[in-house]
Amino acid sequence: MKTKxxxxxxxxxxxVAFDVDGVMTDGSLTFDENGxxxxxxxxxxxxxxxxxxxxxxITAIITARDNGTVKHRFETLGMSKLYMGQKNKIxxxxxxxxxxxxxxxxxxxxxxxxxxxxxxxxxxxxxxxSDAVEEVKKVCHFVSSFxxxxxxxxxxxxxxxxxxxxx
Length: 167
Fold this sequence. Notes:
This protein has helices at residues 4-11, 43-54, 68-77, 89-99, 117-120, 134-139, 152-165, and strands at residues 15-18, 30-31, 37-38, 58-62, 81-83, 107-110, 125-128, 142-143. With 167 residues, the protein is of the alpha/beta class. The strands form 2 sheets. It has a 6-stranded parallel sheet, sandwiched between helices. A two-stranded antiparallel ribbon has the order 2-3.
């Protein structure tokens, strides 16, 4: 359920960024015998990102890993910015808001684990899937009722869309 405080935060969002493993995916890491990594993404989560793009909201990925599958997903969804291999994610976030001339209060970020805390503590709307680690859940304004790769992104994108466009 949306509180007035959450609704106010949702109404200010101009940029939404996501971690990958545990947010865009369920966190599973699958490798073949040659070490090639595979990821599974949720189609409904992807549709939510596409809806935000069409509405003019900037969408981005900030991930510590470097993976061709992530680049392909980024391109397929028509997202705005991709940051891979980011060990200190807040540096990428600060670069992102500077490029788009935004304030961190206008940013939503969804992460699920300890490397995301540096960003979650700074953004206007800190979000996580239901299966995020406890340290992350404690700092988030919005904890999805769905797990990573299982609809958490779609729940967030629907909330932003419905709040800003009164759908």
